[in-house]
Design a protein that fits this description.
This protein is of the alpha+beta class. It has helices spanning 2-14, 32-44, 53-60, 64-70, 73-81; strands at residues 93-101, 105-113, 118-129, 137-143, 147-151. Strands 1, 2, 3, 4 and 5 form a five-stranded antiparallel beta sheet that branches. The protein is globular and about 40 Å long. β1 and β2 form a beta hairpin. The protein starts with a helix and ends with a strand.
């Protein structure tokens, strides 16, 4: 367990250095927090990566039922560039705060400081699910619209 955490932390620290980084796949050893952190770091570094690899990383952890609603990856990518979620792209920093959890669901309050020094809050929900490659893994099921907290000093 500690080795897994070390590997995830090492990957996240070095994520900035990979111009052609490989994506992380859902796995049973990843916690709900790990999944959210991986997705946020990917979005934070999307502009430094080729071919919107950060957005692709988020798509990989989208719950299989959500993928049926959002459509194929290209449609999801357009949604991320839209007004509600573009604040996540290339943001300066983020904080992850647990709001509630059950055995099958976690909800986090995410504080995003944008590259323009604006503060937004999102609620990020992850739930257990299964796809072709991972049974009973954590996937994102919902991300709220942003709540604008204004400019920061």
């Amino acid at each position: 367990m500690e080795l897994k955490k070390f590997i995830v932390i090492l990957f996240l620290i070095n994520f900035n250095n990979f111009s052609n980084a490989q994506t992380i796949k859902p796995a049973n050893n990843l916690t709900a927090f790990d999944v959210v952190k991986i997705q946020l770091k990917a979005l934070q570094n999307n502009g430094k990566l080729k071919n919107d690899l950060g957005i692709k990383q988020v798509w990989i952890f989208a719950h299989p039922n959500n993928k049926k609603v959002t459509g194929p990856y290209e449609r999801f990518r357009i949604m991320i560039y839209g007004k509600q979620y573009n604040y996540l792209l290339d943001h300066n920093s983020h904080k992850i705060n647990l709001l509630m959890n059950t055995k099958e669901k976690y909800i986090y309050r995410i504080e995003i400081l944008t590259k323009n020094k604006k503060l937004f809050y999102y609620e990020w929900q992850v739930e257990k699910g299964s796809d072709n490659n991972c049974n009973n893994c954590w996937f994102t099921t919902a991300v709220s619209i942003p709540i604008d907290q204004g400019n920061t000093i």
